[in-house]
Amino acid sequence: DGGITQSPKYLFRKEGQNVTLSCEQNLNHDAMYWYRQDPGQGLRLIYYSQIVNDFQKGDIAEGYSVSREKKESFPLTVTSAQKNPTAFYLCASSMSDYSNQPQHFGDGTRLSIL
Amino acid sequence: AQSVAQPEDQVNVAEGNPLTVKCTYSVSGNPYLFWYVQYPNRGLQFLLKYITGDNLVKGSYGFEAEFNKSQTSFHLKKPSALVSDSALYFCAVESRDDYKLSFGAGTTVTVRA
Predict the structure, then answer these.
(1) Whole-number Å distance between alpha carbons of B75 and A77
(2) Which of helix, strand or coil describes residue A67?
(3) Cα(A99)–Cα(A12) distance, integer angstroms
(4) Which residues 6+ apart lie within 8 Å of B98 measured at CB?
(5) Is B103 within 8 Å of chain A by CB?
(6) Alpha-carbon distance B34 to B53, whole Å?
(7) CA dist., res. A12 & res. A31, Å (int)
(8) What are the pLDDT tens digits along chain A (114 aa)?
(9) Which residues in chain A are contacts of B4 at CB distance < 8 A?
(10) Distance (Å) from the alpha carbon of A93 to chain B's nearest alpha carbon
(11) Per DSSP, which regions of chain A are E strands?
């Protein structure tokens, strides 16, 4: 089945530690996205990528970093500079960033602080 | 900048009754509008979208939405709700200027048996 796989499902971070969230898609989509979901706030865009080796900051990029070395993969690193990382992180993809195509979402990673 | 408002945090209905989840938006130019549903600890699932044309859009699982340009609204509706429709619903708008999605805060729907 085609889809988006996020791992791990649950992740715990210690103070001063960087952690990386994985996102892999086999939908052959060009565009990929990372969102942060907090209760009562909807989804906020962290980073997005329209094509391999290119990505742009979203609305809340501070304290996060990404890479897009392969079309299928768009990992997100939550750095120690992100002081409030506890949230539900969602990865999504779509056929193209410049279109009205719906985004397809993974099942998320829940990040907590130890 | 575009924005989306979902004025109701929660909607409670009895099974078999009509369900309406409200959404209003603000965007320059003509919008693309979407509805998504989220079940606990899962990602969002696409329900339907409005691009252009007929103001009444039909989507998955018996849901439909009505686009009203004068009221800048895109309310989600289902004629007869099911207990399994209980979930968190998000409205989203995509600007044709930058093609970025902006989400509302979400509305929790509870359908009681």
Answers:
(1) 36
(2) coil
(3) 36
(4) none
(5) yes
(6) 15
(7) 28
(8) 679 999 999 999 888 899 999 999 999 999 999 999 998 888 999 999 989 999 999 999 999 999 999 999 999 999 998 989 999 999 999 987 566 788 999 999 999 988
(9) 42
(10) 12
(11) 4-7, 10-13, 19-25, 31-37, 43-51, 54-57, 64-66, 76-78, 87-94, 104-105, 109-113
Instruction: Tell me, yes or no, if B88 comes closer than 8 A to chain A by beta carbon.
Output: no
Which residues of chain B have a CB within 8 Å of the CB of A38?
none
pLDDT tens-digit series, residues A78-108 = 999 898 999 999 999 998 756 678 899 999 9
* Pairwise CA distance, residues A108 & B42, whole Å: 6
Can you tell me the distance from the alpha carbon of B34 to that of B48, in angstroms, rounded to the nearest whole number? 6
Helix (H, G, I), strand (E, B) or coil at B61: helix
Residues of chain B contacting residue A110, judged by C-beta atoms under 8 Å apart: 41
- Report residue B99's pLDDT band, with 50, 70 and 90 as the boundaries: confident
Cα A10 off chain centre by? 14
Residue type, A31: A
Please name the amino acid found at residue B107.
T
Token couple for A27: 């939908």
Rounded to the nearest angstrom, the minimum Cα separation between B4 and chain A is: 10
3-state secondary structure of B31: coil
Report the distance separating Cα B60 and Cα A76, nearest Å.
31
Burial (Cβ within 10 Å: 0-12, 13-18, ≥19) of residue B96: middle
Q: Looking at the complex, does the CB of residue B101 fall below 8 Å from at least one CB of chain A?
A: yes
